[in-house]
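Sequence in, structure out. Go.
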Amino acid sequence: MSEFGEEVLVPIVGVLCVFGLPVIGFVIFRLLAHRERMEMIRQGLIPGVPPGVPRGMPAAPRAMAPDDALDAGYAQRMLRKGITLTFIGFALTLGLSFIGFHDDSWRPGPWLLGGLVPLCIGLAQVVIAVLSGATLGPPRPQVLGGTYYGAPPPPPPPGPAPDLSGPYTYRPGATQELRPPASPPERR
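Output:
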C-alpha cells in the first residue's frame, strides 16, 4: 500500500473505533434489553416488578405516591448527584491545574475545562435541587394522604394476636422439627 493510503487509513480506523464501537455497543445493549423485556412478557412476568411482589400490588410506594412526594424524592436524588458531580469536577480541576506549572509560575490553560465543566454542572444541580425542596442532612419524614414517605412505616394498629401455631411460623431460638405431611389416602 502506498504512503498516502496508510496516512488516510489509520485516522479512518481510529475515528471508526472511537465513535463507532460505542454506538454499536449501545445498539447491542438496547437490543438485548428489548429481547429480555419481550421474553419476560411472554413468560407472564411484569417487567420492572421484582419477583416477590404479587401481581395486584404496585412495585414500590413510589407507584402510588402523590406528585409532591415524587418531587421531594427527585430533589433529594438530584442533590446527591449534584454534590457527587461537584466533587468530581473539583478533583479534576485540582489535578489538571498542575499542568500549568512552568518555571515556578502557574498559567491557566484550556485543559482546566476538563474539570471546570463538571464542577459547574454539579453546582447547578445542587442549586436546582435546593430550590426544588431538597434538604441537607437526614431526610424528614413526609405524611401525604395518610401514607409515610421517607420514614419507616408506622407501627400496626393493635388487634388480635397473630396465630403462631402453624408449621411455617418463624420462632426464634430452638425450633421443633416440622410435622411430616399427612400420608396420601389409599387407593383400591
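Check: Residues 98 and 105 are 11 Å apart (CA to CA). Residues 1-56 form one domain.
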